[in-house]
Specification:
By secondary structure, the protein is an alpha/beta fold. It is built from ten helices and 13 strands. The strands form three sheets. The protein has a six-stranded mixed sheet. Strands 1-2-3-4 form a four-stranded mixed sheet, with helices on both faces. One of its GO terms (molecular function) is phosphatase activity.
Length: 272
């Protein structure tokens, strides 16, 4: 979603707004797939002018049916086991010295033990456009929360995401955890959790072959999705590794309505 359907200001352009309703009117399933938590999507869904649509959130750990101005209906989710979550949190906070966000389906907790980590949290909240529900001073406080729900995703904030992601992959090798490098953080989800796997599950429900899916992306969490669908399109502003696995690269960026422009071309060609 970010860097793809949203522009650099984190907004949906008028052209992209119209695209969603146009595709639905043509009987095409329009799906948002994002690394963001489900709660962040709701204001956008309310503004989109469509009654409902399927969404993939938490980088594929949750599949739900979102509705405008109404609570979403979870269809499936894959939470991290408690023991694995403790291992990830310990690695990030104790060995790597990073502040972490522990996100469940309904709420979020941030562990920040230093002023620097709290400062990074402020930047992260501004970029994600959602505040953490609880800010704690230590991992011990987090795991002392009564009936702490299982996490769908754990995020660690770092100025060097690629390097820290490599360290985390080495430390967690064979532990059943998928590590993703992002712009200012690294993300941890269950092994085999990704947008492609969630889309495949959704396609089974809808009776649509994965080969009939057109997907757009720009970031490392889009790799599996773009390489699995019928037509994977990397945005012009995508990372080079993403362009390398996509079937094609869009001629336009997210600030130039790249998604809408390419879909309009596919409609004209009779392919959507």
């Amino acid at each position: 979603m970010d860097g793809t359907y949203l522009n650099s200001a984190g907004q949906i352009s008028e052209r992209n707004y119209k695209l969603a309703s146009t595709l639905q009117q043509r009987g095409v399933h329009f799906v948002i797939a994002t690394g963001r938590p489900s709660a962040v999507l709701q204001p956008l869904i309310n503004e989109m002018g469509v009654a409902s649509l399927p969404t993939v959130t938490f980088n594929g750990a949750c599949l739900q049916h979102a509705r405008a101005n109404l609570p979403s209906t979870p269809l499936w989710y894959d939470a991290i086991e408690a023991a694995k979550a403790r291992e990830v949190v310990a690695l990030c906070t104790e060995q790597l010295g990073l502040g972490i966000s522990y996100s469940t389906r309904a709420t979020s907790y941030f562990v920040a033990s230093t002023p620097e980590q709290r400062e990074k949290l402020s930047t992260y909240e501004r970029l994600e456009k959602v505040a953490q529900d609880h800010v704690l001073g230590s991992a011990a406080e987090l795991f002392a929360v009564d009936s702490l729900p299982l996490a769908l995703k754990i995020v660690a904030l770092t100025p060097t995401p690629d390097a820290h992601a490599a360290d985390a992959r080495a430390a967690l090798s064979g532990r059943g955890i998928h590590v993703i490098s992002a712009e200012m953080h690294i993300e941890f989800v269950n092994e085999h959790v990704n947008k492609a796997a969630a889309l495949r599950r959704l396609c089974d429900v809808l009776g649509v072959p994965l080969a009939g899916v057109v997907a757009f992306g720009d970031a490392m969490n889009d790799l599996e999705m773009l390489s699995s669908v019928g037509l994977g399109v990397a945005m012009k502003n995508a990372r080079e590794a993403v362009k390398a696995v996509a079937a094609e690269t869009c001629d336009f960026t997210n600030d130039e309505d790249g998604v809408a422009r390419r879909c309009e071309e596919l409609i004209t060609q009779g392919l959507l």
